[in-house]
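Appendix B, record 7
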Amino acid sequence: LIMKLRKHFTMKLSEKTTSLLENFSSINGSILVKEGTSIKTMSPMKNILAEAVIDEDMPRDFAIYDLPQFLNTIDLMDGPLLDFTNEHYVVIKRERSKFKYWFCDHTLVPSLPEKTIELPSRDVCFQLEQEQLRQLTRAADVLGLPDLTAIGDRNSIKLVARDKNNQTSNDYSIEVGRTDKEFIFNFKRENIKIIPESYDVVISKKQLASFSNTKLNLNYFIALEPDSVYND
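Structure tokens (predicted):
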């Protein structure tokens, strides 16, 4: 007889997983974690979806209504164990101290697509390096710029932090690739909620982009703004 392996209901969350969950909490304050090694979240407006593979193998499905609070609770202890044995709550414990943190009903957390999202087309591709992303983010914050735009002029691809509704606004641009296409792909700056790393970026003229971080096995799908323009 082949015995079924017992699930490990007690674990520590790695620093990587904690960082991913902190980032996911900026996209949606609630999360439904499924059994296995994959986690996903979607923004309330359904214009951002993030998915990642984590180090831990989650033993059961569970829903957290207030993810920032859950993470802050874990942070109150130094490297605690999380015991998922009970289906209704998790016990967060270290030495003689413990929290009992209750899960919420799954219906209180937005449902997520089961299938992996595929871009409808791959029209523009470039690499965004960590330092480039850092500079763009810093410039947008310092200058108070609400938009991030990928612009192709049949020669170069530039990412521009700007206010697209103000022709006299300050802006910051950086070249990230080459192209023979002409396009203006607009994102809201507030939707670029990605961990500051390097990414392979693919943009579809169907107004959807993917930011893939192969180092962390992490993908973001972010909707473009409706006024984006693409010319072959």
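Remarks on this record: Residues 1-5 have pLDDT under 50 and may be disordered. The helical segments are 15-27, 67-75, 130-143.
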